[in-house]
Amino acid sequence: MLTEGDKAPEFDLPINGGENLSSASLAGKPYVVYFYPKDNTPGCTTEACDFRDNFARVTAKGAAVVGVSKDSVKSHDNFVKKHELPFSLVSDKELELHQAYGAWGKKKNYGREYMGTIRSTFLVGADGTIAKAWPKVRVKGHVDQVLEALEAL
Question: What pTM, to 2 d.p., does this model score?
Answer without folding.
Answer: 0.96
